[in-house]
Specification:
This protein is an alpha/beta fold. The protein contains 14 helices and 23 strands. Helix 9 links the parallel strand 8 (225-231) and strand 9. The chain binds nicotinamide-adenine-dinucleotide (NAD). Residues 148-153, 175, 177-178, 212-213, 216-217, 220, 231-233, 236, 239-240, 254-257, 288, 387, 389, 415, 462 line the site of nicotinamide-adenine-dinucleotide (NAD). The active site is at 254.
């Protein structure tokens, strides 16, 4: 058994699920095959939806704080296995060790949040216009939740959805990325351990279905799946959204971003450089919140570009499992080819490119490591308006703050945004109704990453969904408005008279 397979077994995964299946998994670290995962047929996926629905009808009747106990147990499993699961994330998705561990920490954090939430699924009490009446809102479990996830956050995104959905009384079916099924198998094995300790949860409350996008399509088209929470490219969201809408299902879409940082002439440049470099090259530019555009005041544009070039020259690129590495590999050759095509286009559109070449091909001929690229652009051209899922940072300059804001908002995506400034008026304007149009608008902190306490998601082509903290849980429940008459009269609303009145 290879070391990856031993790691999987130590996390509780049955070897039969990854030894002789049809889905070949490669590690982006060296391109080597690491497992052959068993995929589910379409009939099996449909049967899983039926089983999930049966589980839902029981789980919705379990008191919410008791449901929270299951998530508390899941959090314990994750704590105990943080290092092993984080390592598997690094092996399968190519993240550096600290980011792999950080991803598991996010899972632990959302579990803690959801346990508290299980006692706080509050509704409002509303003043009734009728005497002797009371109105209120009640939140009820929604149904089966289909969770479709992307390769770059192979486990955290599942937990953001599942911790909330299970506490809210729903059943879950997870379709992970076809590029990262091993971390899904391991995560699900940990949930199964928690379920065993919990004792009496209905069978099939949470299921994992492995396959290509067609597997996801079965969840998308099945009316038994009340909510589809899909994370991935805008292309995917464009296919999924209308199909779910056509059957009046509910969607949470978490799609591509094209995140910008505005750097004002008053910015603390030391802080800005740190925030920009982490945001642009972390996870090798493969985060939905990666910094892809810099909009810099012309008076400091040259200085900032030079400082970034200097910082980029010393970036440790290499095997993400080795201590000291900050930039790991791209996920695969297709990602590398897409990056090179974008850089060619940038040159055609008058950009000046620094970096961007493939490196380490002698040591890793079947893996794709790149120098992160800085591209000085004369304008926000067509290529800049696109999300290229790779470490490319476009730099543009501005004269007036209003122009910077217009550039920031003038792209189809609306996920994350930031401004570095010490000018209070600019900072407030950036966060105001006329400011950034993104779901995340930060001041003096970069675009990348987010705490689980806030609702996460973005506007426009990012899909409009919200998950994780704040009141995102409402997306996983249905709301009933209740009017209770405790009088002996039956007054009608709006003063309507009917019959003998
Ligand atoms: P992708 O769109 O190729 O795939 C994502 C998932 O959707 C996979 O599980 C895939 O099998 C499934 N899928 C694809 N087409 C489908 C369809 N028609 N019906 C049902 N399922 C389908 O994305 P990827 O390459 O894995 O991930 C990178 C993308 O994800 C980037 O665009 C990134 O910005 C985005 N992303 C967004 C967020 C967010 O929260 N906004 C988070 C992570 C990643």
């Amino acid at each position: 058994m290879s070391s990856v397979q031993e790691l999987l077994v130590s996390l509780g995964v049955n070897p039969a699920s990854f030894q002789n299946g049809s889905l070949k998994v490669h590690s982006p670290i060296d391109g080597a095959p690491i497992a052959n995962v068993v995929e589910q047929s379409s009939a099996e996926v449909t049967a899983a939806v039926e089983r999930a629905h049966a589980a839902f009808t029981q789980w919705r009747q379990v008191p919410a704080p008791r449901r929270g106990e299951l998530i508390r147990l899941l959090g314990e499993e994750l704590r105990a296995n943080k290092e092993a699961l984080g390592r598997l994330v690094s092996i399968e998705a190519g993240k550096i060790i600290a980011e792999g561990q950080g991803e598991v920490q996010e899972m632990i954090d959302i579990c803690d949040f959801a346990v508290g939430l299980s006692r706080q699924l509050y509704g409002l009490t509303i003043a009734s216009e009728r005497p002797g009446h009371r109105m209120m809102e009640t939140w009820h479990p929604l149904g089966v939740v289909g969770v479709i996830t992307a390769f770059n956050f192979p486990v955290a995104v599942w937990s953001w959805n599942t911790a909330l959905a299970l506490v809210c009384g729903d059943a879950v079916i997870w379709k992970p990325s076809e590029k990262t099924p091993l971390t899904a198998l391991a995560t699900h094995a940990l949930l199964e351990r928690a379920l065993k300790k919990f004792g009496d949860a209905p069978e099939h409350l949470s299921q994992l279905v492995i396959g290509q996008r067609e597997t996801g399509e079965i969840l998308v088209n099945n009316p038994r799946v009340a909510l589809v929470s899909a994370t991935g490219s805008t292309r995917m969201g464009r296919e999924v959204g209308p199909k779910v809408a056509a059957r009046f299902g509910r969607c949470i879409l978490e799609l591509g971003g094209n995140n910008a940082i505005i750097v004002s002439e008053t910015a603390d440049l030391d802080m800005a450089v740190r925030g920009i470099v982490f945001g642009a090259v972390g996870t090798a530019g493969q985060r939905c919140t990666s910094t892809r555009r810099l909009i810099v005041h012309s008076s400091i544009a040259h200085e900032l570009a030079e400082r970034l070039k200097k910082a980029y020259r010393t970036l440790p690129i290499g095997n993400p499992l080795e201590a000291g590495t900050l930039v790991g590999p791209l996920i695969d050759k297709a990602a590398f080819d897409t990056m090179q095509t974008a850089l060619q286009k940038a040159v055609e559109q008058k950009g000046i490119v620094t970096g961007g070449q493939r490196v380490l091909h002698d040591r890793f001929p079947d893996a794709y490591y790149v120098e992160p690229a800085l591209v000085e652009m004369p304008a926000q051209t067509e290529v800049v308006r696109h999300e290229t899922f790779a470490p490319i940072l476009y730099i543009m300059s501005y004269e007036r703050f209003e122009d910077a804001l217009a550039l920031q908002n003038e792209v189809p995506q609306g996920l994350s945004s930031a401004i570095f400034t010490t000018n209070l008026l600019e900072a407030e304007y950036f966060m105001s109704a006329a400011g950034s149009d993104c779901g995340i608008a930060n001041v003096n902190i970069g675009t990348s990453g987010a705490e689980i306490g806030g609702a996460f998601g973005g506007e426009k082509e990012t899909g409009g969904g919200r998950e994780s903290g704040s009141d995102a849980w409402k997306g996983y429940m249905r709301r009933a408005t209740n009017t209770i008459n405790y009088s002996r009269e039956l007054p009608l609303a709006q003063g309507v008279k009917f019959g003998d009145d």
